[in-house]
Amino acid sequence: MTVVYTTAVKNARLDAVVTQIGATGVLEVGTTGMGTVLFSVTLNNPAGTSSGGVLTFSGFPKATTASASGTAAAGRIRTATGGTDIVTGLSVGTSSADIIVNTTTVATSDPVSVTSATITHAA
Question: pTM of the predicted model, to two decimals?
Answer without folding.
Answer: 0.94
